[in-house]
């Protein structure tokens, strides 16, 4: 059975955040690189667009997190925590965050996208053209790069898919060049 089928069965084909059954889809929580039932949830188009910042946040829509934050599924708990963090300036999300519990490992995963930080404190990765990079993006090398620890040279124009961001250094991303996972400097890549 596919991950999507298992999620549909688990959620009864409804959004696991707001319980809508309109236009639901699988959402893999960043920075997860593998689609599994434990790292994915079902979301509606409205939730998806706000999570991905395609539309403006509607604070009243997210009052549904009062229920979904108590889900038994960790992926739902993590997304509820992240959305409450985005909305914490509204007042009521702060109360829910005070009640919410995530164990240390899951809290560490929830914090990977820096939703809990103020905008001024967030590390923002940008490519050579100044375009913001996100975990899971695809980039292309704009310069030949020698791969440390091997004789391999990654040629200009090589695509690096599904990158991960270094949360400590704004200049570093990780990605696979061929079979080798390597650190790449952001000024040598362009977002696809």
Characteristic terms for this protein:
192 residues; alpha+beta; three-stranded antiparallel β-sheet; 10 strands; elongated
How is this structure best described in words?
The protein has 192 residues and is of the alpha+beta class. The protein is 25% helix and 19% strand. The protein contains 6 helices and 10 strands; from the N terminus they run H-E-E-H-H-H-H-H-E-E-E-E-E-E-E-E. It has helices at 3-11, 45-51, 65-68, 74-86, 92-99, 104-110; strands at 24-28, 40-44, 139-141, 145-146, 153-154, 159-160, 164-165, 172-177, 180-185, 189-191. The chain is elongated. The two termini are 32 Å apart. The model has no long low-confidence stretch (mean pLDDT 87).
Distance between the termini: 32 Å
User: How would a textbook summarize the main sheet?
Assistant: 3 strands, antiparallel
**Which sequence of strands runs across the widest sheet?**
6-3-10
Could you list the spans in which at least 5 consecutive residues all have pLDDT below 50? none
Radius of gyration: 18 Å
Pfam families: YjdM
Protein name: PhnA domain-containing protein
Domain PhnA protein N-terminal proteobacterial: 6-52
InterPro entries: PhnaA_N_proteobac, YjdM_C
What is the topological layout?
Elements: H1 3-11, E1 24-28, E2 40-44, H2 45-51, H3 65-68, H4 74-86, H5 92-99, H6 104-110, E3 139-141, E4 145-146, E5 153-154, E6 159-160, E7 164-165, E8 172-177, E9 180-185, E10 189-191
Antiparallel strand pairs: 1-2, 3-6, 3-10, 4-5, 7-8, 8-9
Helix pairs in contact: 4-6
